[in-house]
Amino acid sequence: MDGVFTIILLFCNLLLLPDFSSSHPLCTDLRAPFSPKTPLSFCPYNVSVCCNSAEDLQLQKQFQAMNVSDPACSSLLKSILCARCDQFSSELFKTETGSRPVPILCNSTVSVNSSQSNRAANDFCQRVWDSCQNVSVLNSPFAPSLQGRAGVPVNSTFSKLTAFWESKSIFCNAFGGVSDDGSLCFDGGPVSLNNTETPRPPNGLCLEKIGNGSYLNMVAHPDGSNRAFFSSQPGKIWLATIPEEGSGGTLGLDESNPFIDLTDEVHYDTGSGLMGMAFHPNFANNGRFFASFNCDKEKWPGCSGRCSCNSDVGCDPSKLGSDNRAQPCQYSSVIAEFTANDTTSQPSLEKRAKPLEVRRIFTMGLPFTSNHGGQILFGPADGYLYFMMGDGGNKGDPYNFSQNKKSLLGKIMRLNINNMPSAEFDGIEASMESCSIGIGGATVVRSAGDGGTRSMMIGSWLALGRGMGEGEGIGKGKTVGESEIYDRGLWGNYSIPTDNPFSDDKELQPEIWALGLRNPWRCSFDSERPSYFMCADTGEDRYEEVDIISKSGNYGWRVYEGPLVYNPPLSPGGNTSTNSINPIFPVMGYNHSDINKNEGSASIIGGYFYRSMTDPCTYGRYLYADLYASAIWAGSENPENSGKFTTTQVPFSCAHDSPIQCKSVPGSHLPALDYIFSFGEDNKKDIFILTSTGVYRVVRPSRCNYTCSKENVTAVASPGPGPSPSYGIRLSYPQKELVLFFCSSLLLLLGFIL
Ligand SMILES: *[C@@H]1O[C@H](CO)[C@@H](O)[C@H](O)[C@H]1NC(C)=O
Ligand SMILES: *[C@@H]1O[C@H](CO)[C@@H](O)[C@H](O)[C@H]1NC(C)=O
Ligand SMILES: *[C@@H]1O[C@H](CO)[C@@H](O)[C@H](O)[C@H]1NC(C)=O
Ligand SMILES: *[C@@H]1O[C@H](CO)[C@@H](O)[C@H](O)[C@H]1NC(C)=O
Ligand SMILES: *[C@@H]1O[C@H](CO)[C@@H](O)[C@H](O)[C@H]1NC(C)=O
Ligand SMILES: *[C@@H]1O[C@H](CO)[C@@H](O)[C@H](O)[C@H]1NC(C)=O
Ligand SMILES: *[C@@H]1O[C@H](CO)[C@@H](O)[C@H](O)[C@H]1NC(C)=O
Ligand SMILES: *[C@@H]1O[C@H](CO)[C@@H](O)[C@H](O)[C@H]1NC(C)=O
Ligand SMILES: *[C@@H]1O[C@H](CO)[C@@H](O)[C@H](O)[C@H]1NC(C)=O
Ligand SMILES: *[C@@H]1O[C@H](CO)[C@@H](O)[C@H](O)[C@H]1NC(C)=O
Ligand SMILES: *[C@@H]1O[C@H](CO)[C@@H](O)[C@H](O)[C@H]1NC(C)=O
Ligand SMILES: *[C@@H]1O[C@H](CO)[C@@H](O)[C@H](O)[C@H]1NC(C)=O
């Protein structure tokens, strides 16, 4: 009976295996690989690794404990243990449900499509079988019970592979590499990726204008429909329908009829306003949504919270002086929760919500008036709320907030808003806590009799997918999925995921997920690879950057500006030396002088990995832009999953059949976008550009006469490109006109980014 069960489970496991995706170099604990200060003495990994010397020593002991006499098998086993130190260990050890005891071993049948070098040629799994099948190993890592599936508990005695596995093919079925999806496998040494041919950048981005309004944020409706929310900086959110591409329709948005109007609470100024919004993944059922905005305590009594300049971080508010006539901590950054669950039982049918704050999630007083990010996003894999916060402003982060682990400025935070410490005080019934997270059907339940201080995840996180289950491969032991209520009440009402980085680094405030940012302006998760958490971070004087955010990553600011050492002009808060930190450098970006020599660029606007087939030539590229709207870039990753990008500035123009005619920059073919504020993505994964002149969508290249060989032009009603000249070249950059145009523009710098 056990045996049958075992086999069924084993097959289920195998069916699940091909379902996970590849990712950039990442360690099993979700941290970025690093350069070891001293070379590892046991494992042959040295440049970018996932083991420190303590872990290296641990592996050495584990290896010695196996007491393997056969030299061939012994060296293979050593290499297998050491795969933990590989910069791709997260990928090598990942399963749907957690972590494997040994990495995925390359199998002769693996895909030819993988970017990994030498794969097809190296049947590593077979080598392991052939060399080790008859060799006795103490505490064998190949015991079936360690595979997490098979039933027979294994005694810690010497055992041969043949004791567990009947044949090579059964063995390689269990441990061999998967094919098709291009995920990585272990072939006996460090994973190296094969450079494929450099992907050609798209010839151009074709835009159509579908709205006249100026918005700061766009968020797709979580119910999967063709609707999205748009928000304005002064504080309104609208629910709009998105027209079919090519239909000639415009955005269905009634400015006079907002979904919610928060203008009474929001402090609106060049650098302040309604900065972000997020809809609970299960919004369609629970109606919970969140707004991130700035408020002024002199205008609104609800605007009170702790000042981010305080003695804990070596900052005295009375010494800061005023900024733009504002006193320190006169303004705050706030996350407030609202509900669209007033009248009907179906929040997704709601067309408006009352501006009645259900709950305050977070309030923090701001030292100065700029650089306070404000975007909020739910992580697609973990369901937690990520909150992007800038360094708080002024020149060069004078108080060193971004590097200060006690400060929440210059950080990305990660909060659990499904467990509320204050639940029993603010009238939420305990039953309301059993809200389903939606993406996985996991259920958060307040456990009875625990006094509200602790809660447990009940049910399976398996379906939350992408390996975010239990097992130390991804989180730490069983901590993922459990959550600790954090109720010191410093900043608000939320709980802290127990696997936030503070669990390993006690100096870190528990909210912190990543540090060393200046002003993250637009982050996104790749919808096909959730481990690609991309953030653009605005530069100070010289460099605008895009980072891949990983757990506890330090992105360097104000020690570095992008890859460049930064010398702060003011240091009342002391300094951090370059060799005291291990910064993670940007994967994309641009120099201010790249755009034009005279005026320079303004600041970066982070976008998305383009995942729509509307423009197949842009598919898989990461798009970002400069605020001044004279440049849009596409970043191509090569090799795939290497985390290495080549970037190209791409031409863009407006479709001749755009539903709303685009104005042109005088004397050029460039559409007059004026200022790019943000990008947006709808449920079809189409990409939108939110600008001061309206809402634009990236559409089929042929509508701008850009050639894209992958586009099915026969399906298109509008005229095809024919034997066309290269229109991409025709659209050169009329820089001089642009400079004149922008200089004459009255809308000067947008303080919220700069
Ligand atoms: C890293 O290890 C490889 C192989 O073990 C070796 O060829 C290379 O020289 C080493 N590099 C450094 C910087 O130690
Ligand atoms: C290791 O193996 C050797 C012989 O191969 C044996 O003498 C020794 O007792 C073994 N050690 C342990 C701890 O089992
Ligand atoms: C790299 O890929 C190319 C084509 O995809 C292949 O011909 C070549 O053999 C590969 N090189 C290695 C080292 O795997
Ligand atoms: C392992 O043992 C089997 C059966 O005893 C034998 O057929 C095979 O040749 C052995 N393999 C090695 C590599 O010694
Ligand atoms: C492990 O070995 C010991 C001693 O040989 C034995 O008493 C015990 O039953 C074994 N356990 C299992 C699960 O086989
Ligand atoms: C690994 O290769 C063996 C044959 O060598 C094959 O039977 C097995 O299905 C392969 N396993 C996987 C997971 O690809
Ligand atoms: C490799 O990729 C191509 C194109 O993406 C696809 O048609 C083919 O089926 C893939 N081959 C395998 C073995 O996955
Ligand atoms: C947008 O503005 C243009 C010109 O001002 C106007 O013709 C058009 O009707 C407007 N479209 C929408 C959908 O508001
Ligand atoms: C939403 O409204 C329904 C029906 O009124 C109610 O049963 C449910 O508990 C509410 N949910 C929340 C999260 O308030
Ligand atoms: C600046 O931050 C670093 C990193 O946290 C810290 O070591 C240093 O002491 C800070 N400087 C001051 C004066 O707090
Ligand atoms: C694109 O080509 C069509 C005909 O091939 C032409 O009518 C149209 O004006 C062209 N559009 C642009 C923007 O050049
Ligand atoms: C292109 O579109 C046409 C019309 O929709 C369709 O019949 C044809 O199969 C499509 N071709 C490809 C390669 O998708």
TrEMBL record:
Limits of the Glucose/Sorbosone dehydrogenase domain: 258-418, 495-569
Show which residues constitute the signal peptide: 1-23
Keyword check for Signal: yes
Gene3D superfamilies on file: TolB, C-terminal domain
Q: Which InterPro entries match?
A: 6-blade_b-propeller_TolB-like (IPR011042), Glc/Sorbosone_DH (IPR012938), Quinoprot_gluc/sorb_DH_b-prop (IPR011041)
Keywords of the record: Signal
Listed name of the protein? Glucose/Sorbosone dehydrogenase domain-containing protein
Which species does the entry assign this protein to? Answer: Tetracentron sinense
